Amino acid sequence: MKPILETFEEAVREVQDGATILVGGFGLVGIPENLILALKEKGTKDLTVISNNCGVDDWGLGLLLKNKQIKKMIGSYVGENKEFERQVLSGELEVELIPQGTLAERIRAGGAGIPAFYTPAGVGTPIAEGKEVRSFNGKEYLLEEAIQADFSFVRALKGDIMGNLVYNKTARNFNPMIAAAGKVTVAEVEELVDIGELEPDQIHTPSIYVQKVIIGEQQKKIERLTTR
Q: 99 - beta bridge partners?
């Protein structure tokens, strides 16, 4: 059995100033929102956060950004956050933008213990500056290094007391690879079940990647409301 935490304060207690954190989700879908809220309340600062994007101004990682807790953001998309734009232009925030596929593979490689790989994405662009370029079969590729972090925060629909996880449809997104690439992975789940209640073939993240589990109700906010 993995430790089943009682409070989100306890879940983020080990996260210290200057930590590197991988955060699951895509937009506001599948984000570990209660862990983010707890980290905001804790006030931990100078964080390096790695996630597909930085949420919106008033939810998700945007809360940490607004609270000046993020020193560096590594991601692939930042279009929904005005505070993000303001901090970048004012020099308050360091940013590393990565093509989305490259970001996903760097995280996956980190979880698989692969130190680096070659990709054609970014060749001949500013992304290639300072990186090794090598030719394979007449085509140029960039060497990209794997990503690992001190902590991984993920969100799952269901988890069992061993730490096996099942994600809900598109909320699966970045969560499985992020769960594997953190030294300490904390899983926020909507429903906790006993051993044997999850179908083995339906498990997306095996328990070996998860160190801590906590139950958390999700608000499921909409990133961009579109109506007729």
A: none
Given this model, what pLDDT does residue 177 score?
98
The full set of domains in the chain, from first to last, is: 4-123+135-215 (3.40.1080.10)
**Structure tokens belonging to residue 46:** 């100078």
The structure tokens listed for 158 are: 């269901």
Give the CA distances from residue 17 to residues 31, 53, 70, 149, 150, in Å, rounded to whole numbers and listed in that order: 21, 21, 10, 14, 12
Question: How crowded is the C-beta side of 62, counted as CA atoms within 13 Å?
Answer: 19
Question: What is the C-alpha to C-alpha distance for residues 88 and 81, in angstroms, rounded to an integer?
Answer: 11
What is the rounded distance in angstroms from the CA atom of residue 192 to the CA atom of residue 101? 32
Question: What whole-number distance in Å separates Cα of residue 71 and Cα of residue 87?
Answer: 10
pLDDT at 79 over 90: no
26, two tokens: 């895509």
- Report how far residue 135's alpha carbon sits from residue 186's, in angstroms, rounded to the nearest whole number: 40
Residue range 198-215: mean pLDDT, rounded: 97
Q: What distance in Å separates the CA atoms of residue 117 and residue 132, rounded to the nearest whole number? A: 11
Q: CB–CB of 185/209 below 8 Å?
A: yes
Q: CB of 98 within 8 A of CB of 106?
A: yes
Which helix (H) or strand (E) covers residue 104, if one does? helix 100-112
Q: To which H or E segment does residue 183 belong?
A: strand 182-193
Query: What integer is the mean pLDDT of 197-213?
Result: 97
User: Would you place residue 130 in the very low, low, confident or very high pLDDT band (cuts 50, 70, 90)?
Assistant: very high
The pLDDT value recorded for residue 222 is 77
CA dihedral 57, 62, 65, 71 (to 10 degrees): -140
